[in-house]
Design a protein that fits this description.
The chain has 308 residues and is an alpha/beta fold. The chain is built from ten helices and nine strands. Helix 5 crosses helix 10. It starts with 12 loop residues before the first helix and ends with a helix.
């Protein structure tokens, strides 16, 4: 079967190192990659709203010298007529060389990968996984810290529906001495299956708390997330929880001088704009790093599929 990336665990630690190495080479020598995907087409199938991820994939393909064909919403595709994900992907496989798929239903990317004749990259499926955001996170961590082991990482906000959080936990539990501080309201805690099947199963240390300030001095990385309105069935619950954590300069008083503040974006209120100029703010660096890692992944999958 053609290799696709649906979950971050579809990539071994060796493959992650290979992707990071390629991304760093792209950063240093962009001209060497300007025609790497000449005459190849990426299909971006986004059945859920996106700015950063869709444009990042498209920018990545253009900078590799390729082209993009796109579906930017379910309403503008045959999904509005009732076409299945599998049939959509089988059709698009006839037009493109690789697919980036975002879908509101968990498992849709897996269905797509099984139906597709070309590589599929999961660009987010419901509250499940978002592997290329994790690639952006990993490159950011590596460029800031130079390692993945021996870190204390605080994950703050919506840890229940946050697919970026779930993917990052899965990725970092393959490295040594990583400690997790899980900071959220009671209603938005990390799902029990993540704690049971990932953290406990692999013997990783974690603390679950509602207090960001209490653990701030211990953190090497603070990964903020927004409370996601689109995941709530009840507007009242969203309004009650949306401003549970707001990172302001005063809350960084006791933080480490080399703390790295990450956020998958979009930001709503959870990080004050005044923090943007703090040298510890890395969330816009993540945006650039995401493009480079998507370039690296597109190259890898096209090569393995024999398309370049």
């Amino acid at each position: 079967m053609i290799k696709s990336v649906i979950d971050i665990l579809d990539l071994s630690t060796e493959e992650l190192e290979e992707l990071i190495k390629t991304a760093q080479d792209i950063i240093s020598n962009p001209d060497d990659y300007a025609d790497a995907c000449r005459r190849k087409k990426l299909a971006t199938l986004f059945f859920e709203p996106s700015t950063r991820t869709r444009l990042s994939f498209e920018a990545a393909m253009y900078e590799l010298g390729g082209n993009v064909i796109s579906v930017s919403s379910a309403d503008s595709s045959s999904a509005a007529k009732g076409e299945s994900v599998a049939d959509t992907v089988k059709t698009v496989s006839c037009y493109a060389d690789i697919i980036a798929l975002r879908h509101p239903k968990e498992g849709a990317a897996t269905v797509a990968a099984h139906a597709s004749k070309i590589p599929v990259i999961n660009a987010g499926d419901g509250g499940h996984c978002h592997p290329t955001q994790t690639l952006a996170d990993l490159l950011t961590i590596y460029r800031e810290k130079g390692r993945f082991s021996d870190l204390t990482i605080g994950l703050c906000g919506d840890l229940k529906f946050g697919r970026t959080v779930h993917s990052l936990i899965n990725a970092l539990t393959r490295y040594n001495n990583v400690r997790f501080v899980l900071i959220s309201p009671e209603e938005l805690k990390v799902p029990s299956y993540v704690k049971r099947d990932v953290l406990k199963e692999k013997g990783y240390s974690y603390v679950q708390t509602t207090s960001l300030e209490s653990y701030m001095p211990e953190l090497d990385i603070l990964y903020m997330t927004r409370v996601q309105r689109e995941r709530f069935f009840n507007e009242e619950d969203y309004l009650r929880l949306k401003d549970s954590y707001i990172l302001t300069p005063d809350k960084l008083t006791n933080a480490k001088k080399d703390l790295s503040i990450l956020h998958p974006l979009p930001r709503v209120n959870e990080i004050a704009v005044s923090i943007d100029d703090d040298p510890r703010a890395c969330y816009f660096k993540q945006v650039s790093n995401g493009k480079y890692m998507r370039m690296s992944l597109i190259l890898k999958l096209l090569k393995e599929a024999g398309r370049i």
